[in-house]
Write a structure and sequence with these properties.
Elements (H helix, E strand, L loop, with lengths): L2 H10 L21 E8 L2 E7 L9 H5 L5 E8 H5 L4 H10 L2 E10 L3 H4 L5 E6 L1 H14 L10 E4 L4 E11 L5 H11 L10 H8 L11
Antiparallel strand pairs: 1-2, 1-5, 2-3, 3-4, 4-7, 6-7
């Protein structure tokens, strides 16, 4: 999201409160934990996971980038997300009209911190069952063609990446950060929906898996 879009969000949602801290539990790492990395890109958030933890065929990106060690996925307004220079009009359109969504997958190798050196990264441990629900949630977000296949929209924003059509609609109360929170909730992470990146990160910092405890 751009500053213009964020300003509209803050103006519309200035009275919204963050959830109480006592609703947040400290995360522990079960023996079979799967690590999910929440990555902040300014006003936008995404998640990264080890590609090998995602079953083959679960996500089309798993097959499109077979040599990837990690996959990052984000979600947003289809027109705004894909535009090289979206401008204020697309930001307003995305916020105040219900518009088609898009998934953005990035394939990369090496440590997450090295690939995103300028981003805040919050690692979270999930159980094997929780991670399976996360995978299923992202899978269900894909729009399908008449043959039941994923709809590939075109190259992504950076690195080895690609856009895919989503069946979900973007609007003022269904932002990229709300989507990220819903994916995490599906995995069992105790987080409330947050329309802004900072609202989501505020919660996650309190339950982050300690550095060195992730695999």
């Amino acid at each position: 999201m751009t500053g213009a879009a964020a300003a509209l969000l803050f103006a519309a949602l200035a009275g919204c409160a963050l959830p109480r801290a006592d609703r947040l539990a400290v995360s522990t790492s079960p023996p079979d934990a799967r690590t999910v990395y929440v990555i902040a890109h300014g006003w936008h958030t995404g998640i990264a996971v080890r590609a090998a933890d995602v079953p083959e065929g679960a996500w089309p990106a798993r097959g499109d980038f077979p040599d990837a060690e990690f996959l990052e996925v984000g979600w947003g307004d289809r027109a705004y997300y894909q535009a090289p220079d979206p401008g204020a009009w697309l930001a307003v359109r995305a916020l105040f009209w219900s518009t088609p969504g898009a998934l953005h997958f990035v394939a990369f190798n090496g440590p997450v911190e090295r690939y995103f050196p300028a981003s805040e990264i919050v690692p979270l441990a999930t159980s094997r069952e929780g991670f399976a629900r996360l995978v299923a949630y992202v899978r269900a977000s894909h729009a399908l063609d008449a043959d039941g296949g994923a709809i590939r929209l075109g190259p992504g924003q950076y690195g080895a990446s690609r856009f895919y059509a989503s069946r979900e609609q973007f609007h003022l109360f269904r932002t990229c950060n709300v989507w990220t929170a819903d994916v995490l909730r599906a995995a069992g992470v105790p987080v409330e929906p947050a329309v802004t990146a900072e609202g989501l990160l505020w919660q996650l910092r309190r339950i982050a898996t300690p550095t060195g405890a992730t695999r």
